[in-house]
Design brief:
CATH class of the largest domain: Alpha Beta
Radius of gyration: 26 Å
Number of strands: 21
Distance between the termini: 58 Å
Structural class: alpha+beta
Number of domains: 3
Bound molecules: adenosine monophosphate
CATH topology of the largest domain: D-amino Acid Aminotransferase, Chain A, domain 1
Number of helices: 20
CATH architecture of the largest domain: 2-Layer Sandwich
Amino acid sequence: MLLKELTEVYEKVRARSSKLEKITLVSELLRKTPSETLPLVCYMLRGKIFPDYSAQELRLGWSSIWDAIRAVTHVSEEDLRIAYNKFGDLGSAVELIFEQNPKISVSLVTEPLTVEECYNALLKIATLRGKESLRRKKTILMGLLNTSSPDEAKFIVKTITGEMRYGFKQGLLEEAIAEAFSVDVAVLRKAYMVRSDIGEVARIAKEQPETLKELSIVLGRPLRPMLAETADTLEEGFKRFDKALFEYKYDGARLSIHKNDDVVSIFTREAEEVSTSLPEIVEDIQKIPHSFIVDCEIIPFEHSPKAFQELIKRLRRKHRVEEFARKIPVKLYVFDLIYLDGTALIDTPLLKRRELLATAIQQPTERIEIAKCILTKSSAEARIMFQEALDLGFEGLMIKNPRSLYTPGKRGIEWLKLKPEAETLDLVVIAVEYGHGKRANLLSDYTFATRDRDGNLAPIAKAFGGLKDAEIEEMTEYFKGIAREQRGRTFIVEQKVVVELKFDEIQKSSLYAVGYALRFPRIKRIRWDLSVDEIDSIETVEKIYGRQKRSS
Ligand code: AMP
């Protein structure tokens, strides 16, 4: 299949605003795509060339793509930057550069690119390792770009960067597949939930649609985790379900563990297998009878929960694993059971899954426990549990619908998360940068400073979330007015805008000279009422850090 057929549809879908028209365009393309190419087309249409159950990545950095584009088009650094700034996305920049600088035409001597060639080249890029691999990856990309039209070059770069931006999300792709092969979209979605591979499911929909219904979980193949919405109060749970299941919310890393007889595979939420970095957990899990899939959170734990960063030193570790297992003990809290001895449980209500979990894991160990939960109608009881969670050094509570089914990959109202009102910091903006995508022309990414021990302003965070679009537009004008200097896409600004920042946690970090950084900072509001003299200093940062660690 020619790549051109795919890129033409991409362009048409991008130009339409009606979802139905978008779906029809893609479904027509899928219907005429040969079976063996169908998975590749599905992957490329979503800008992610591997199925969800795979942790494989292209491993081709921004600067390599940048260099490859420059090498193929001979455009200057400055011109590519101007093109990039115009769109805030490299794919569209490439298209413009290709159009402005027609390459010495290669299309006369080369065959047009096919989808299969393009996909295989990307696969090759993903699998190259070791010395010289970066150079070879770039060479492969240059080869692709050299044989591409402007549209194709744009599509290839977008597939690599994952910035498809054509208003065609996963949900619409599912609808297009269902329409193309006349299958029920609910059945198709369910099949995708259990298989975590949209390409495989599309192919089955085409070749054996009647078997879609029978697809089930594959032990050893990671599922996408079920996700939670934020709740502002405990009572939100009761508003939605008469009785709610409250669990401690642990602050660590989400893991799913697949046990098939003796074989234990531990996956992160990004489907990366990390079993070898957690030998003591593997050993404990092996001792539990049954084959199963459990959903859990792992935290660093020695008498009480330790700081989240400790965990980073353990997960994915390849060397000195045993030594770090001793240095940084961890604890696994299991909160769900998705599969047990040949039976998938995603259609079993949570309360029943919890019961089965208790029968499967009967003996907690020093390292593996079932997450504490209560089923209640009483706010007072829930409030006590919330306080208890915080006193024990956990993050808060999860509020779950006891009747809910397990829906892989979905964020819904069946699971809610509740954390205490976050502390905030008032910091001053010292630099602003152009954003990406629809914010490419807006100064939306801010760098913030606190005051260090010598009274000097010192950067401590970078954030872009939190302000409304209209506010960002207003602030862009404002910041341009107080800009002192431009460096590339960044403006250094007069230090007069104070912002109240929310964040998940303060971490010790070498990222900034002050030795701390904020985890997930986002803007709460601009404090026009405060001046730079009133911002929070490093002492306050340290105080909050200390409070956070109170229970560790
Ligand atoms: P957040 O990361 O703040 O969006 O909160 C959701 C995450 O909390 C999940 O993805 C899990 O990693 C984690 N978590 C901790 N404890 C639980 C629990 N009891 N049930 C579900 N998720 C939990």
